[in-house]
Amino acid sequence: MSLLDQIAHLLNENTEKWFDTYAGRKFPIAYRQNETGPVVCPYCGREHHHGTADGHRSSHCPTSSHGRRLNLEGEIVTPADGYLVLTRLKGTRKLGK
């Protein structure tokens, strides 16, 4: 494997996906640092809060963002479609003493 191929492999291995497929459709991914943290919305760029479970969520965007669209490799999605919430660090809740 050439040095260029090795670098490309490392970049692909360490780059988070920005969308994924759920129920046969593509959705952008909004990552959060822990199960109780906020996400940065892929549509409006604001922080939104959701429950502790990962999965598909409705966006909480202000109406001024409703005209925004994302092109996910040929599939157009809008805030009305929602997004996927994924937690980077699971099990990071602090327990009481």
- N-to-C CA distance: 51 Å
What is the number of beta strands? 8
Mean pLDDT: 82
| Major sheet description | 4 strands, mixed
How many H/I helices?
1
The H-and-E topology, N to C, reads as HEEEEEEEE
Low-confidence stretches: 92-97
Fraction of residues in helix? 10-25%
Q: Which strand order do you get reading across the main beta sheet? A: 1-2-8-5
Shape: globular
Number of domains: 1
* Rg, alpha carbons: 16 Å
- Beta-strand content: 25-35%
Provide the structure class: mainly beta
Summarize the structure.
The chain has one helix and eight strands; from the N terminus they run H-E-E-E-E-E-E-E-E. It has 97 residues and is mostly beta strands. It has one domain (18-87).
Tags for this model:
1 helix; disordered C terminus; mainly beta; globular; 97 residues
Write structural notes for this entry:
The strands form three sheets. Strands 1-2-8-5 form a four-stranded mixed beta sheet, with no helix packed on it. A two-stranded antiparallel ribbon has the order 3-4. A two-stranded antiparallel sheet has the order 6-7. It is globular and about 50 Å long. Strand 1 and strand 2 (25-32) form a beta hairpin. The N and C termini lie far apart (51 Å). The chain is 11% helix and 31% strand. The chain is built from one helix and eight strands. With 97 residues, the chain is mainly beta. The longest helix has 11 residues, at 3-13. It has one domain (18-87).
